[in-house]
């Protein structure tokens, strides 16, 4: 009964995966101001938790999220979340850990924006992405107008946003909006499998790799290539002889029965 009263649930596994569940299934996980604040603080806390390496975000019931709860819409749309610490999207962007979105059903407007802030997206066959900003006269302010076109291209983004019609899961996969589509019964297992594959790799490099991909994506290609080169030089300049030795040992296969070397964040 206690879990039923919590709008945001967090479960941590023993191997470094944290699963965040939006937990208002009776309301299709519509987002209230209190829920958004809790979600922002949850990402901040998990980012600072050294036992957490990968985060999975999903929704309870038949929706990922139906967007902002319209009974509290004015509190959200008028800027109550201009403080970074309580801004879910800002805290997701700042999170160093990979975020896997397990999209299990309706993913509408604000829910769509939160999904686009994830690093990897897995969708169930029941998923429908819908942008209703134009339908209800709500101006986008959480990134949907910019992130979607950078993901699927401006022509498809204009169709999605200006018509407010659903994008089915397999269309989303074909457009490159999601990494893969699976049966609802396989959704969490698939997300966990992806998380476990990430966990097998060098923890410090995973964090740095995510950051350089995301930071470089904001720049023109020439500047992004320079950014990668600069950070690569910094990375190798800070490596110690034992780090190089561990890398060489791993590449040579002599550590096949050992864990991948873990560097600090």
Automatic annotation (TrEMBL):
InterPro entries of this UniProt entry? ClpP/crotonase-like_dom_sf (IPR029045), Enoyl-CoA_hydra/iso (IPR001753)
Organism the protein comes from: Physcomitrium patens
- Species lineage: Eukaryota, Viridiplantae, Streptophyta, Embryophyta, Bryophyta
Give the matching Pfam families. ECH_1
Q: What is this protein called?
A: Enoyl-CoA hydratase
Annotated family:
Belongs to the enoyl-CoA hydratase/isomerase family.
